[in-house]
Amino acid sequence: MKKTYLLNSEISEVVARLGHTDLLVIADSGLPIPDGVKRIDIALTKGIPSFKDTLNTVLTELGVEKAYIAKEMIDKNNDLYLYLLELFGEKLIIISHEDLKAMSKNARAIIRTGEYKPYANIILESGVEF
User: Which pairs of positions does the record mark as disulfide bonds?
Assistant: First the structure.
């Protein structure tokens, strides 16, 4: 049995296959998932699992070079914005929600959570751990 923190086999496989600058999206329950992008749907019910729990678990195994969020989060979900700003610092890049949706078309996968708060979406750009 796997000993590390991340137990979901689909997410673990995607993270293991990411190369430098590959994109992984962690999304709320409402973000559209483009055709052709792998969907990992872990939503169970409203709020479960949460965006934060999912993100924090993924970060136990993924080195992040940059993280992209929608500028709309600043006003519509400020607590989450402040949390992400503290977590990522200068690695956090603010873009429009439309640009975030366009970028998600290039993601290796989108993890759909049960998050029910607006604009709780992030694109993680894989870094290099050496």
Answer: none
Find the catalytic residue in 17, 20, 39, 105: 20
Binding site members:
28, 97, 119-121
Q: Which residues are annotated as a binding site for substrate?
A: 28, 97, 119-121
Active-site residue 34, yes or no? no
pTM: 0.96
Q: Which residues contact 96 (CB under 8 A, 6 or more apart)?
A: 70, 71, 72
Q: Cα(7)–Cα(113) distance, rounded to whole angstroms?
A: 15
Task: Select 18-126's CATH number: 3.40.50.2000, 3.30.70.20, 3.40.50.970, 3.40.1650.10.
Answer: 3.40.1650.10
Q: What is the pLDDT of residues 1-56, one digit of tens each?
A: 667 889 999 999 999 999 999 999 999 999 999 999 999 999 999 999 999 999 99
